[in-house]
Each structure stands twice: as C-alpha cells, then as structure tokens.
Amino acid sequence: MIWYFKYDPQTFELLPGAIYAEEQPSNSTTVDPAGTPFPVFNVTKQTWESDPVKLAELEERQKNQPQVQDVQKQIADLYARVLNQELKGM
C-alpha cells in the first residue's frame, strides 16, 4: 500500500486528504506536497509548485501587516505612557 495525493483534474490544485491504497487513483501522485504553499501539481515535471497568484497575494498581505518589532515598540511606548501617568498622579 502507498500514500497518494489527489489533485483537481482541471486546476491541478491539491485536494485535502491523502489516500492509502494498493492501486493509484486517477488524478493522483505519490509525490508529497509537504512544504509547498498553495500546491499545484505540474504533470509534466511531476512536482508540486506553489500557485504564483496565491503566493503573491500572501506576500502582499504580509507586507501590509505590522512587523512584530513594530507592535512590540508600540506596546513599550504605551506601557511607558501609562507608567508616566501613574507617576504624575502620585
């Protein structure tokens, strides 16, 4: 028995869930898509590739999100302001 990874026959996008079978189901491969974001199967190369449109959208969303360092700096600034206000009130 072997694990098979199915893909949509029109879009070649990975379908959720692997199949453990003796015979290979149609529109499937033994190539594991692990580590490939937004996997699309390239039948010619017999590899999984990332969907370029979805990958570009993800990268754009990540650019627009505040970085962890920015959020940490904002928290530190707010904390300092609260401390300042408490000290002034004493």
Characterization of this structure:
With 90 residues, the chain is of the alpha+beta class. The chain folds into 2 domains: 1-50, no CATH class; 52-90. Helices cover 39% and strands 27% of the residues. It contains 2 helices and 5 strands, in the order E-E-E-E-E-H-H. It has helices at 52-64, 68-89; strands at 2-7, 14-21, 28-29, 39-42, 47-50. The strands form 2 sheets. The chain has a 3-stranded antiparallel β-sheet with strand order 2-1-3, with no helix packed on it. It has a two-stranded antiparallel sheet with strand order 4-5. The longest helix has 22 residues, at 68-89. It is elongated. It starts with a strand and ends with a helix. The model has no long low-confidence stretch (mean pLDDT 91).
Layout: helices, strands, pairs:
Elements lengths: L1 E6 L6 E8 L6 E2 L9 E4 L4 E4 L1 H13 L3 H22 L1
Antiparallel strand pairs: 1-2, 1-3, 4-5
In terms of per-residue confidence, which ranges show pLDDT below 50 for 5 or more consecutive residues?
A: none
What portion of the residues fall into strands of 2 or more residues?
Answer: 25-35%
The main β sheet shows up as: 3 strands, antiparallel
Secondary structure: helix percent:
25-40%
Strand order, largest beta sheet: 2-1-3
Could you report the average pLDDT, rounded to the nearest whole number? 91
Q: Which descriptor suits the 3D outline?
A: elongated
Q: Pairing-aware structural class of the strands and helices?
A: alpha+beta
Quaternary state of the chains: single chain
- Count of DSSP strands: 5
Report the C-alpha radius of gyration, rounded: 24 Å
* Structural domain count: 2
The topology string of helices and strands comes to EEEEEHH
SS field, number of helical segments? 2
Q: How far do the termini sit from each other?
A: 74 Å
